[in-house]
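Q: What structure does this chain adopt?
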Amino acid sequence: MSILRFFGLEPARGAAEGSPAETETVRRITAALDRMEPERAKYIASFAYVLSRVARADMKISPEELREMERIVMRIGGLPEEQAVLVVQIAKTQNTLFGATENFLVTREFNRIASQEQKLALLECLFAVCAADRSISVVEDNEISQVAAELGIEHRDFIAVRSRFRDHLEVLKDSRRL
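A:
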């Protein structure tokens, strides 16, 4: 399965090939993603989507969060930078357009295909993305909690990961100011 098809961005059949907007670089990147084993492409696509879901929970994705998402997708997906940037941009766009309806569905798909170890790795990455701008808002923290629940991650595991990012949690920063 094409990663572009998974995200619903594959051009319609019969669409003009080689349109001016389509660059050779984009064609090479998408061809490389298309050659990826379908289950691996689905894993990377859903992983990136859930990252964007949480990063955008507060209705904005900071440049630091975006760069962290790209680094994580490069590392987790074993992708070159150009492909990771494309995957993150597609995930971000899809989340912006369809987040309200797709968030649960994509997270459920990730839950179906990921091992417990991979789910915990995603949880760690969700906190890392939100902490990239040195602040995890209450809305982002709540969204991560929601994702963890959807993935069936035990509360003690959630708290163990969350505690590693406590210096970035706005809810705790506010209580220190009192």
